[in-house]
Amino acid sequence: MRSPAQQAQQAGAAEAAAAGTESIGGIAAKLGLDFGFGSQATDSALPPAGAGTQAAAPGTESISGIAEKLGLDFGLGSQTTDSALSHAGSGGRVAAEQHASSSGPGGGSSSGGVPAPAASFTAETSCGIVRWTDLQLQGSAAGAGSFGTVLLATLEETPVAAKVLVPLRQGPSGIEAAGSLTERQLAKVQRECSLLASVRHPNIVQILSVCEDPPTIIMEYCSKGSLLDVLQEARKSPRQAALLSWQRRLGMALDAARGILHMHNRGIAHRDLKSPNLLVDAGMRVKVADFGFCKALDGGGDNVMSTTLDNVNPKWQAPEVLFGQPATTASDAYAMGVCLWELMTWSIPWSGVVPARIIGLKMNGMHLELPSTPESLAQLPGTDKDRAAFPRVAPQYIRVIQQCWAASEADRPAFATIIQQLTEIQKALSAAA
Fold first, then answer.
1. Where is this region: Disordered (predicted)?
2. DSSP H stretches of helix in 354-404
């Protein structure tokens, strides 16, 4: 049941639409977006789409066009050219991140597009637009997510990660788009960028700029890859293993937890927390990435998108999510427990077990195996020094994991508590050294 305030807001939005106007909340609702306004938010009416600008061709829409309708600003400037993207075709979800406050428009235009004026993103944050030709591709893929391909590139002599949201092909003049984004995919891009306007933290990957054609998010480059990559490399290389002391591993866990806490404090659950989405920079600092499933949590069930088995990885997901319940901050805590298990074992969770079997095991209350004897602790990876030191704090560390995996969501710790517990373990390990 909607509250009277919500009913009034809905009626007001309908009245505005009938008058040839549209509200920010109305547009957001049509695109499946939620900015966490709540039932008391007041939307200002916007002029009809295309007013004051040259409208895109029927059946198409540009990223900047949607941004303009939603009152968002990528810092594109009045001379920016947008490339209209057709609803048909394939594409992907962006794993974008926030960058520090800047001012002034970005430069560039994409060929064959339609001029569009700048639109307001937030008063504090803007993001420049660049041309595809401004990027110098390094000729190799830095990775691939659930949607899109990440390419290593340089922009203004700076290494960057360019996440291209559509398939690519080799064209007559170089790499070009082989598809386009659907309206729903554009909405996901818009949702993600709106969320990133409220998250700015040293443990969250920054978005630097965007490219319209092909649709690309340019992010800061984390040269070590993902946490999963780092742990798997350490398994194969004694030199890399020596870099992952328990003090460093605890520091990496704290990095991830602080990034997620920053999001939770702003009413946002990550919903897809896992080691592949925790990136590691040259200084071994962990940064949270891949916000495609993020969702604002305030306002109850209507504002929490249900996570289905089609778009989750059961290795990291909480049992209730696999049952079809909405993902929450508590399910983020469950996933954090899996990441802590990975930092302890350097193993891939549920390796060799098919997804359907993982789901069945979790629904029956089963968890990943935890070391429980001196012999099993002695088999954990790392240097001899680390294996000798860890048993002193192993009970506390394992207890944090078990709390994260509590069957009841209410019994799982908040991330502020996880940070406090990991900090105490780090101090105890230092005192014992």
1. 83-117
2. 355-363, 374-378, 384-389, 394-404
What is the arithmetic mean of pLDDT over 228-251?
A: 96
Tokens 């291209």 -> residue: 164
DSSP-assigned letter for residue 281 = -
Q: What is the pLDDT of residues 339-359, one digit of tens each?
A: 999 999 999 999 999 999 999
What are the C-alpha distances in Å from 405 to residues 261, 368, 394, 413? 18, 10, 17, 9
Task: Give the closest residue to 163 by CA, choosing from 203, 209, 199.
Answer: 209
Among 68, 422, 428, which residue's Cα sits nearest to residue 256? Answer: 422
With beta carbons less than 8 A apart as the criterion, state whether 100 and 209 touch. no
- One-letter amino acid at 229 equals D
The dihedral through the CA atoms of 410, 413, 416, 420 has a sign that is positive
Domains contained in the chain, CATH given: 22-39+61-220 (3.30.200.20), 225-432 (1.10.510.10)
Residue 177 token pair: 């788009």
Measure CA 209 to chain center: 16
Global pTM reads 0.67
Q: How many CB atoms lie within 10 A of CB 423?
A: 13
Burial of 324 (C-beta count, 10 Å sphere; 0-12/13-18/19+): exposed
Q: What is the pLDDT of residue 96?
A: 33
> Considering just the CA atoms, what is the radius of gyration of the chain in Å?
23
Bridge partner residues of 130 (DSSP): 211
Phi, psi of 60 (to 5 degrees): -130, 160
Token pair recorded at residue 55: 């409208």
Q: What pLDDT, in 10s, does the model give residues 100-117? A: 333 333 333 333 333 333
Could you report the per-residue pLDDT of 421-431, keeping only the tens digit for each?
A: 999 999 999 98
Read off the amino acid at residue 33.
L
Q: What is the DSSP letter of 220?
A: E
Residue labelled with tokens 């209209």: 84
